[in-house]
Amino acid sequence: MKLSDYRVRGKRARLADWDTREDGGLSKEEAQPLLAELQEELASWQERLYAEGKQSLLVVLQARDAGGKDGTVKKVIGAFNPNGVRVSNFKVPTPEEKAHDFLWRVHAQVPRAGMIGVFNRSHYEDVLVPLVHGEMDEEAAEERLKDIRHFEALLGRGGTRVVKFYLHVSPDEQKERLQARLDDPSKHWKFNPGDLAERALWDGYTDAYEACLATSTDAAPWYVVPADRKWFRDLLVSRVLLHTLKDMDPQYPAVNFDPRAIAIE
């Protein structure tokens, strides 16, 4: 599994270039022990990040309805110590949020030094939804995407590494997952009839997501994650996060005492 195969490069990505059912040449049984090893490593590197207290990591999760954002938070982000993680969800803007620029509510949720922040939906929603619903034209959307590029560059200069994931599911897989929510009474709360209206706009969202993926940069890369197979999704996201944390290379802080000279009575 080469991480570079999933990283978006260039000004225009085509989602059709990634197979939503890809398995990386692995079986689910082979992937499970690999994921367990990755989770141990992720926890170790998170501890270093927290102890250092100089850098932070922002993880952006975007997907269509039932695309697996919540599952990724549970299965991947769950490997981290919750004391060092903050998950933020961005829903329809409130009247107060609408009274400010679209990034106002987002900037307030950026992780402080030492922390990992997770955006379960993000500032990209403020481009995707209005663009697909005809509330914004392509020129206005491009202006917002330009603002987002500058915003993410600002975060990078301030010590916050940004890594973005688009969880890529097929129409058939989404249908199956939505149906499963209807069939299981314990999952009814997760079903929103409005999701069916959004599903009908599949092609529009494909175009909008491809426009958003053009914001992939060295400082804030996008990864397209084949997500029909949940276990492969978790494995790939974990590997990217581990690669990112190692590249950040947080260090345990030096202490101002000699541990060898201290005797605890």
Automatic annotation (TrEMBL):
<dbReference type="Pfam" id="PF03976">
    <property type="entry name" value="PPK2"/>
</dbReference>
<dbReference type="InterPro" id="IPR022488">
    <property type="entry name" value="PPK2-related"/>
</dbReference>
<dbReference type="InterPro" id="IPR027417">
    <property type="entry name" value="P-loop_NTPase"/>
</dbReference>
<keyword id="KW-0418">Kinase</keyword>
<feature type="domain" description="Polyphosphate kinase-2-related">
    <location>
        <begin position="26"/>
        <end position="251"/>
    </location>
</feature>
<dbReference type="GO" id="GO:0006797">
    <property type="term" value="P:polyphosphate metabolic process"/>
</dbReference>
<keyword id="KW-0808">Transferase</keyword>
<protein>
    <submittedName>
        <fullName>Putative deoxynucleoside kinase</fullName>
    </submittedName>
</protein>
<dbReference type="InterPro" id="IPR022300">
    <property type="entry name" value="PPK2-rel_1"/>
</dbReference>
<dbReference type="GO" id="GO:0008976">
    <property type="term" value="F:polyphosphate kinase activity"/>
</dbReference>
<keyword id="KW-0175">Coiled coil</keyword>
<feature type="coiled-coil region">
    <location>
        <begin position="28"/>
        <end position="55"/>
    </location>
</feature>
<dbReference type="InterPro" id="IPR016898">
    <property type="entry name" value="Polyphosphate_phosphotransfera"/>
</dbReference>
